[in-house]
UniProtKB/TrEMBL annotation:
Keywords: Receptor, Transcription, Transcription regulation. The keyword Membrane does not apply. The keyword Transcription applies. This is Nuclear hormone receptor family member nhr-5. Pfam families: Hormone_recep. PROSITE patterns: NR_LBD (PS51843). SUPFAM superfamilies: Nuclear receptor ligand-binding domain (SSF48508). It comes from Trichostrongylus colubriformis. Residues 1-146 form the NR LBD domain. It comes from the Eukaryota.
Amino acid sequence: MVGGNIIYFQMRYDSFREVEAGELPAIAHRNLIAAIDWVDHLFDIIDIQNLDDKVATVKHCFAPLMVFAFSVVTAKNAKQPDIVCVCNFGHVKRDCCLRWTEPYHFANRLAERSIDELISPFRRMNIKEEEAALMKAIIIANPCEF
């Protein structure tokens, strides 16, 4: 699907197949587009049109929003305990950073830490879609420094 000058592909978090390392840049790109869309919609709701603020907000929220999104969806949809679902109909395994020479945004044991610190607790909480949407808005609006 094409929107303006931005090319979109459908975001669908499933565990049909294991993702290869070469697909990670496209996955990160699609998550960046999703963060831009979230920020744009949130700024429309609160009637702020400052482009510099939007850019700064996207830079701030991209990584936390991506990790939160794949963690919630994995907790809701995946039955396997040691995978992380990503937005291109695939998943990565817990040890992906060890098996790939270039793990991109899954370096530093991100998959393992997400499974242990987010996905498992979200499964126990049985987080609802409405709760996840509110948490995404909080992640975007929270201006803390990392």
